[in-house]
């Protein structure tokens, strides 16, 4: 195991060889905090990657960290892990080991953090984690590729200049809130209230971090979800429209053309 260092936010750093896809041993959707509000376990030979959908306390090596929806943790092998939940809690996870036969020096390794906020990468990382879980029964290679992509994206973010802590936290909360409400009506003031900032401040954060408006981002994420459903399911176009927040089929068609340049029917037909 690589001993972690500490950055200015006192979050341990970890180093991982990402020159080849990791070997994913298991993955899935975890559900905890129902029968017990405390879980404790240890994975002696496996790294633990989690994408959280809840608030809880994570304890690793006698240190406590607060996790929230949209937070990612990456815990090395050997470390004892303890969770203190606030209630029913769901997350996406993967347990893996690096590709075997690699040099153990730091020369080939990427630096990541034990606790990370994906920021603008949250939607893509969520999609990749979902894809990894769905692909596991039929395409383990796809699962490995998806988890590898998640780790590489997280490593790339660690190289970017750090945004201010408040802006990063506000963006993470806003993105998570939007993801959870895509099938429902959602407004900019509502998202801003969830993030604890004004609508104007939220607009500035999105412009700086996402290079788009809040409304444009919501539209894009809805259509990205719809596009996957059109390609992979037999749901009717009307049902898909409703499932991504467009009860009006004409509005769905308009949004689809605006984001992709194609109609829903054209997307389904390939």
UniProtKB/TrEMBL annotation:
List, alphabetically, the SMART domains matched.
Answer: HTH_ARAC
Domain of life, per lineage = Bacteria
The keyword Protease appears for this protein: no
Spans through the membrane: none
Answer whether the UniProt record assigns the keyword Cytoplasm to this protein.
no
Q: Please report the stretch or stretches of sequence annotated as the HTH araC/xylS-type domain.
A: 172-270
User: Which Gene3D superfamilies would you find in this protein's record?
Assistant: Homeodomain-like
What keyword terms does UniProt attach to this protein? Answer: DNA-binding, Transcription, Transcription regulation
* Molecular function (Gene Ontology), one example: DNA-binding transcription factor activity
Q: What is this protein called?
A: Helix-turn-helix transcriptional regulator
State the species of origin: Microlunatus elymi
What are the leading ranks of the lineage? Bacteria, Bacillati, Actinomycetota, Actinomycetes, Propionibacteriales
């Amino acid at each position: 195991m690589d001993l972690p260092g500490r950055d200015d936010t006192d979050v341990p750093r970890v180093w991982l060889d990402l020159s080849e896809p990791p070997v994913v041993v298991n993955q899935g959707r975890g559900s905890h905090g129902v029968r017990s509000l405390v879980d404790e376990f240890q994975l002696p030979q496996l790294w633990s990657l989690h994408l959280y959908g809840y608030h809880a306390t994570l304890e690793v090596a006698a240190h406590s960290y607060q996790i929230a929806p949209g937070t990612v943790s990456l815990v090395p092998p050997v470390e004892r892990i303890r969770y203190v939940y606030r209630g029913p809690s769901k997350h996406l996870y993967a347990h893996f080991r690096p590709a075997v036969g690699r040099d153990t020096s730091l020369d080939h390794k990427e630096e990541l953090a034990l606790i990370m906020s994906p920021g603008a990468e949250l939607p893509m990382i969520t999609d990749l984690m979902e894809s990894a879980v769905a692909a596991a029964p039929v395409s383990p290679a796809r699962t490995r590729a998806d988890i590898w992509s998640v780790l590489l994206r997280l490593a790339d973010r660690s190289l970017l200049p750090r945004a201010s802590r408040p802006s990063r936290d506000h963006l993470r909360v806003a993105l998570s809130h939007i993801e959870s409400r895509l099938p429902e009506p959602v407004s900019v003031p509502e998202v801003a209230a969830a993030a604890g900032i004004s609508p104007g401040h939220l607009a500035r954060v999105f412009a700086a971090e996402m290079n788009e408006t809040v409304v444009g981002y919501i539209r894009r994420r809805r259509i990205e979800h719809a596009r996957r459903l059109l390609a992979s399911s037999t749901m009717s176009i009307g049902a898909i429209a409703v499932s991504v927040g467009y009860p009006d089929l004409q509005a769905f068609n308009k949004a689809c053309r605006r984001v992709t340049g194609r109609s829903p029917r054209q997307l389904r037909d390939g």
